[in-house]
Amino acid sequence: MKKKNWFLRILCALLFLCMSGLIMLSIYTLSAEDGYQSGSRSSEVTEVLKEEVQTRLESTPEGMQLSERIKSFIILHSPYGSDWNLNVRKLAHFSIYFALATMCYITLAILGIGKIGRIILTLLICGVFAIFDELHQGDVVGRTMSSSDVVIDSLGAFTSVCILTVISMIYSFFGFILNGSKD
Question: Start and end of every VanZ-like domain (predicted)?
């Protein structure tokens, strides 16, 4: 850690750590909802998304063609087929762990942890939290534990880590080129 920026780095790290905590709190809160409440919430979100697709995407002939291609792709590749609600729920798992991994990775980068350390620690934090979240969810009325949810959560974290590592490598490469050309 550079001596002159230590205060700012710690302040930024605390900010990203707080955001990580807020994401973890929201994950815990959502998994603490009973089965009926959780199902109702996801059904509402699914209906809003379906409405948006119909009003925005399917309002033109080109949009209708794109919509049909997207639906065909989802039906072909999703293990849940055309079940919008399950697809939305799994996308939510992926997305929230993507966000959690992003905040953890950035926090570790600000603290000066090396790339390999960031990757391992971020995936470990997200993986362990996903496992404990599913264990917690198994104790909630109307909810079940699902190993596929842990896999989807881990894939979200892994995708985030891959993207951020590539960005970090590109940044390092350009920093090396720019600093190397000054000598």
Answer: 18-166
Rg of the chain over Cα atoms, rounded to whole angstroms, equals 20
Q: What's the pTM?
A: 0.82
Closest by CA to 30, choosing from 102, 116, 95, is: 95
Nearest in space to 105 (alpha carbons), one of 164, 35, 36: 164
**Whether 145 contacts 136, CB under 8 Å:** no
| pLDDT for residue 4 is more than 80 | no
Give the span between the Cα atoms of 126 and 144, in whole angstroms: 20
Looking at the structure of the chain, the number of domains it has is 1
Domain, as residue range, for 98: 3-182
**Pick from 121, 122, 115: which is nearest to 160 by CA?**
122
Place of tokens 């509402």: 44
CA 70 to chain centre: 21
For residue 8, give both structure tokens: 């700012």
